[in-house]
Write a structure and sequence with these properties.
Blueprint: H1 2-24, H2 30-44, H3 46-70, H4 76-90, H5 96-116, E1 139-140, E2 144-145, H6 151-167, H7 184-198, H8 200-211, H9 213-243
Antiparallel strand pairs: 1-2
Organism: Candidatus Nomurabacteria bacterium RIFCSPHIGHO2_01_FULL_42_15
GO molecular function, one term: membrane insertase activity
Transmembrane segments: 20-45, 95-116, 136-159, 198-220
């Protein structure tokens, strides 16, 4: 049941979109089709990811006030009440970013899965009105064979992942008073941020190299799109802050 829903709602539409793009791109360059399809999906998800990034940015702006509440000496119940009032005043939902990311995960994973399984349009998944492309060229721009492992693309995938983590709004760390032990949530958040920035890029590069150049190309395109979006959000927030 779940597999049928997965195929019908996510996998097949993306595979058919890829087949259509390959059929209309001169020379049937699959690499260009991968880039275009990835960009189309990212544009479709733009409103969701935009809200997620903006939510994190808003949390960072409120970090100093959250720190004052924590260091104010009030009881846990009073701190929770003040924190809730602060979120309400600034119209911030601390969980909205997580929820929006969770909504995007199935779509992004389905797109990744299309490239992970290999570019094959003869498995009976194409719609009746989408024909198998006459020309399927796996040599991206006549230079790189994306059907095989590609070290240059894998390295670029890792670098792009680092850039994406670097420009991502940093978590709003609420530092504990001197002499006190950081809470589990604080330690976990800092640890995750460090791993996402310095360790995950190597993981991405390894996976991209282990599978194919098509997966690496998808990762590069997706990460660079996110970098541009994060820079846009940061500049927009700075502009609004100056106006205020």
């Amino acid at each position: 049941m779940l597999i049928n829903i997965w195929d019908t709602v996510l996998y097949q539409p993306l595979l058919n979109a890829l087949a259509f793009l390959v059929s209309v791109i001169p020379g049937g360059d699959v690499g260009l089709a991968v880039i275009i399809l990835t960009l189309l999906v990212k544009i479709l998800l733009f409103p969701l990811s935009q809200k997620s990034i903006e939510s994190q940015a808003e949390m960072n702006i409120l970090a100093p006030q959250l720190k004052k509440i924590k260091e104010g000496g009030a009881s846990k119940e009073e701190q929770a009440k003040q924190t809730f009032e602060l979120y309400k005043q600034h119209k911030v939902n601390p969980f909205s970013g997580c929820l929006l990311v969770l909504i995007q995960i199935p779509i992004i994973f389905a797109l990744y899965y299309v490239f992970y399984k290999g570019i094959n349009f003869e498995g009976g998944h194409l719609y009746s009105f989408v024909h198998i492309p006459e020309s399927v060229n796996m040599v991206f721009l006549g230079i790189l064979d994306i059907s095989a492992k590609s070290l240059p693309l894998a390295i670029l995938a890792g670098v792009s992942q680092y850039l994406q983590a670097h420009f991502m709004p940093k978590p709003a760390f609420s530092e504990s008073p001197k002499g006190s032990t950081p809470s589990f949530s604080e330690s976990f958040t800092k640890s995750m941020h460090t791993q996402m920035k310095y360790i995950f890029p190597f993981v991405v590069a390894f996976i991209a190299y282990s599978i194919s150049g098509a997966v690496a190309l998808y990762w590069i395109t997706s990460n660079l799109f996110m970098v541009g979006q994060q820079i846009y959000v940061k500049r927009e927030k700075n502009f609004k802050t100056v106006i205020k």
